[in-house]
Structures
1.
Amino acid sequence: MRKILLGLMLGILSTTGYAAAPSGNLMDAQVDVSDQGSLQRGAKLFANNCMGCHSAKYVRWNALPEPLGVSMEMVEDNLIYGAYQAGDTINAAMRSEDGAEWFGAAPPDLSLTARARGADWVYTYLNSFYRDPDASIGWNNKLLANSSMPHVLWRLQGVPEAEYEDTANGVQVAGIRVPDAQQGMLSTAEYHQATRDITNYMAFMAEPVRAKRQEIGVWVIGFLVIFTGLAYLMKREYWRDIH
């Protein structure tokens, strides 16, 4: 009986947290897809900074209002550019052919990136850009070296510079910092919150029903715990006369 209860309690704990523990050198995104304020800010940042190049073709516009806690009119006014149908998927403003020509590869669709890579990976990636004059696009990324994506959030963060160190494998990037003279519109804490909001929104896009599924899951596990206890008491009552 105790083993059954322990298994059920572990099930409850596994359903209440969204993000897995950070692994390796990844930063902890601490995403919470039930935080509508974060989702709203992340949606706005995603629309203004990501949708120019990246699509989210597995997400439809009419799937956004309820989870974000806003009306469809607000989605239209703040996220959608140009004509659309409510059931349309989120497409990039740039054609994939142009992206392949300009960047060497078409920018990937971001619908499932947070699920495939993990939210911690996305958050760390957004915080790992640095200026690199030797790179073809002038930027590099500590997590994903020689990425073809420029640092589109540099106006918010500033211009990060790499700090190098000599290792057995040659000179490598040891850390990244933004010099005082190259600060952006946001402080370090504010920029981390902005990238966390984008990551949270991407985690939501990767599984739009996850918050609701987690909420229902807690009630289901709670019911099973109570039912198991009642069933055990009933079993004892039935077997009392036999013994």
2.
Amino acid sequence: MKPFKMTALGLFVSYFKLTGCFSRNAKLYLLSNFLISVGFSFFGVLFNLYLTEGGLQEGTIGSILSLIGLALVITAIPSGILSDRLGRKRAMLIGTLAGALLSVLRALTVNGPWLLSLSFLGGASATVYTLSTAPFMMENSREEERTHLFSASFAVMLLAGILGNLAAGGLPSLVRTIFGTGTFQAYRVSLLLGSAISLSALWPIQKISETQRDRGSSNLIDLKKLQQGFRASGGFVWCNFWIGLGAGLVIPFFNLYFAKRFGASSSQIGLYFSVSQVFTLAAVLIGPALAKRFGKVRTVVVMELLSLPFLISLGAEKVLFVAVLSFWMRASLMQMSSPISAAFMMEIVPDDVRATANSIATMAWNLSWTFSTAFSGWAMQHYGYAIPYYLTAGCYAVSAVSFYLLYNRKEQRQNVSIY
């Protein structure tokens, strides 16, 4: 095993040299991903605050958020098959347009039943887009740059999050000052602006050039392909289930965690989220070098295990500074592993079932996320914010150990490293 001698400067020079070689399609995708992520970050910072300002409690909010995950579960396999049949471009166009319009509608109401329906439909549209992205990157990258493209996609999302979180955090105060509106209306205006930004992603997606795909069987669901997808993604299903279970307990409620436990304002929360994205961006950029040196599986496992103490700290912490620092570290470590594991899955899954296998693994993540989000909203409302963080640490530990046992030898045996 050779010593790890690459300097920080050499790492970034090598990284950006490869990103400059991305195809035109890949670059258009990265632009669309940036715009969608900016709009999404507005909802990440403000939507729960908007709902609480509108009179809804954590239990109800948890139910609304869980419907997004439920939609992802129900529509994951059909969305993967739709992407394989229609092509990535058409699927991404459909998902982006529907998602942006549904975001507008969600920003115009605080009616519980309506929000439940809109959240379900929003989750379905997000599924159509999201499950097309990994196969799209696989099909529009060369072997030597593939992990870099997956990491670049994640880095673009983080950069968009930095800008979007800062803008979303400060925009309500600006709207109140300029227009003299109340906090509730300021949140609504900000969410509508975020929806408009997401809608603008249609332009770069439309510019993507895609060759006509072989649509295969005339049946809506190819049972043979579905069976192959289940067989190829089995281990990822198990690991994703535990990650989703833990993620659903805490991630949808980070803004409420800081607002309720520490009395943080929307601008403070936006700042915390943005700095978190800065740390995570740096972590994601060095991810490919770590995967090259130590292997994808080991990198994923170590990063997930290192995040556990920070999750426990978030549950127990009463000092804002320490809680914010733990929040930043947890996000950096966990999200560094995401593009690496996604690239690894795309490399070991047969090319004709990539979207289907991706949809099955994503379905497992969102199935557990759905139930844990609904449970966590109720638990936080009645018992406080600590217990879900401890449970999340346990779930992530199960996933990390399982991932190592399932795939470490497989990676070594097949030598799937792109380098």
